[in-house]
Amino acid sequence: MKLTVLGSGTSTGVPRIGGENGGADWGLCDPDEPRNRRTRVAVLLESEAGARILIDTPTDLRAQLLATETHRIDAVFWTHDHADHCHGIDDLRPLRYGRAGPIPGYADAETVRRLRQRFGYVFAGQYGYPTLISLDNLDTVRLCEGFRVDHVQMPHGPVESTGYRFEADGRSAVYATDFSEITRGMIELFYGCDLLVVDCLRREPHPTHAHLGMALELAEICRAGAVVLTHLDKSMDYATLSAQVPPHVQVGYDGLVVTA
């Protein structure tokens, strides 16, 4: 299966707004390196049969779908309800056009509740507009558009985020972002995956996100085949970080395409 990194940045993106004299704040990232320009995190999975699964609807979703020429998705899964992961939900509206029904959507029970509370019109229609997404609890799905779907709840500071394992065409891809602790459940679900896309905010420990050491530890414990680092902040310069990680680990960037 093919995985496209739509966005690879932290919640404020890179560069961050509010630099010196109102300019862009690149931190330690080289502004002349295009792979340092990061939008908010999301990925797109595609099977050999052409089925497309979107994970998260970040605030930069419209630009990401245009940049990757994505005009259709078959389902969407959410990791959690934080703004950088869901507030681009309305950008799915044009992808509803021409469909016989709403786009299938899935999340854990608490995320479903919060999404319905925040974006009721998306899931119920309003003023003559059709329902955009049919939102269901993750516990109701095991197969989706030819993908086997498994999930685990991960600590994300005081809340939780959902980690996913997708299998299709005899291969497996794991998406694990926004976690602050490695649990036994994560190890059991992710073990032996062909591809691991993993949270890696910065080098120093963080109360709600994985840092570089934790990301590499998870990859090693789970014996992941290939690894892509994502959710990177402005301290994580692409070239510098690329020179420091093992050969099977790749620093993610917007538009990166990898095959599991």
Structure description:
The chain has 260 residues and is α/β, with parallel strands linked by helices. It is built from 8 helices and 14 strands. A 7-stranded mixed sheet has the order 6-5-4-3-2-1-14. The longest helix is centred in the middle third of the chain and has 10 residues. The termini are close together. It comes from Novosphingobium soli. Pfam families: Lactamase_B_2 (PF12706).
Helix content: 10-25%
Work out the strand percent. 25-35%
- CA-atom Rg in angstroms: 17 Å
What is the number of strand segments?
14
The largest β sheet comes out as: 7 strands, mixed
Mean pLDDT equals 96
| Individual helix count | 8
Features:
260 residues; alpha/beta; 8 helices
Task: List strands and helices in order, with pairings.
Layout: E1 2-7, E2 42-46, E3 52-55, H1 61-67, E4 75-77, H2 83-86, H3 93-96, E5 103-107, H4 109-118, H5 120-124, E6 133-137, E7 143-144, E8 147-156, E9 159-168, E10 171-176, H6 184-190, E11 195-199, H7 212-221, E12 226-230, H8 238-242, E13 249-251, E14 257-259
Parallel strand pairs: 3-4, 4-5, 5-6, 10-11, 11-12, 12-13
Antiparallel strand pairs: 1-2, 1-14, 2-3, 7-8, 8-9, 9-10
